[in-house]
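Q: For a teaching handout, I want to show students what a protein-ligand complex looks like in token form. Below are the inputs, and the small molecule is zinc ion. Please produce the holo structure.
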Amino acid sequence: MRCHRCRKPANVEIRRSRTAYCAGCYPDWFRQQVQDRIDHERMFRRDERVLVAVSGGKDSLALWHTLLQLGYQADGMYIRLGIGDYSRRSQAKSEAFAERHGLTLHQVDLKDDHGFTVPDLLDTRSGKPCAACGTVKRYHFNKVAADLGYPVVATGHNLDDEAATLLGNVVHWNTDYLGRQGPVLESTHPRLVRKVKPLYRLSERETAAYAIISRIDYILEECPMAKGAKSLAYKDLLNALEEEQPGAKHRFLVGFLKEGRAAVRTGGFDQAADLHECARCGQPTTGDLCAYCRMADRGRRKAVLKDAKYGRQPIAGPELQADR
Ligand code: Q46
Ligand code: ZN
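A: Here is the structure, written as tokens, with zinc ion included.
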């Protein structure tokens, strides 16, 4: 195949559009796709500072790199989740990227700053901390952005992530989530920052190709907690479908956003309704304590028990509070 732009031998094939690009033209094509989405979805303006949620993986580092190349003011934020060597290596990749490009990388350390780690949040039924980990990440990315005055948080969710989430929500008919799934989540409260996903139409393969061609040094290994996660099963199903029908993932997600989402929006969930400040941390919540503060209490209790078992000195966090 030949490059769609310059007719040189192609390196990256985009099967869904029956095109291909050489390594010289591909990064430009990729960045143009991102720019189109930012503009079309009105994700952020050039005068707005963007906080990129960074994990050390290809998607978040490719996103950060792309935004900088497009001329946006983008800083990074990394959360030290405390998932053993995986966390240490992903932190090192994130810090190295920031250092190499002279960028600001904000960090939160769950254990040192909050007294627990993600493995302390294991769910007793699933044996996985992923749902809780997602709450932790959303909470801290939002809180740091709100505290430091960033109007928007950008995450590296790609087409594969979004299509898998959509399939999961359809399988379980989570209509509230379906009604809110999309590339932009607007702010509904002064302390809830806008969330955007500029890579949502680019596949995992396309993002990886961008990262490799741009010589981005990212962590190759997956989080060890991801093994057996339902989202991986949905991704496998969608990949099998994509093999048979190139473009199926794209049509599934984009078709839903265009046609299906409005139909399920009647779910009745209104995020703006009844929001007040969490009694502990001040973040918006519908309850007395926010979901994060309740979960953090459980995590700290587990951490204290573990520290006692292994004879370690527990790290002080906010005082433990009884479960409600
Ligand atoms: S980091 Fe957290 Fe993921 Fe690891 S524990 Fe699960 S959610 S798999 S993106
Ligand atoms: Zn709280």
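A: Two things your students might notice: Residues 24-317 form a domain with the Rossmann fold fold (CATH 3.40.50.620). The first helix runs from residue 26 to 40.
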